[in-house]
Amino acid sequence: MEEGDRLCEEIKKVAYELYERRGMTHGADLEDWLQAERLVMAKYSEKLKSKEDSKASKKERASKRKTY
After folding, report:
1. Overall pTM surpassing 0.85 (yes/no)
2. What are residue 26's phi and psi, to 5 degrees?
3. Which segments of 1-67 does DSSP mark as H helices, in order?
4. Which residue, among 57, 55, 43, 50, has the nearest Cα to 6 in the 3D structure?
5. Of 25, 32, 59, 64, which has the most beta carbons under 10 Å away?
């Protein structure tokens, strides 16, 4: 399964969970989907930022070691 497919599946799962939390009432599917997109994308953005911060931190430590 490709990254885009996994992302879509996760959004689908979260949207369904939102639907269940609302008591499974119909008529808010678009709102559920858009909210799920925001939640999932925020999660992935945070993971990506954390990875980037970790890489930058490693590079900074490595460059400090080289200067001694």
Report:
1. no
2. -85, 160
3. 3-21, 29-67
4. 43
5. 32
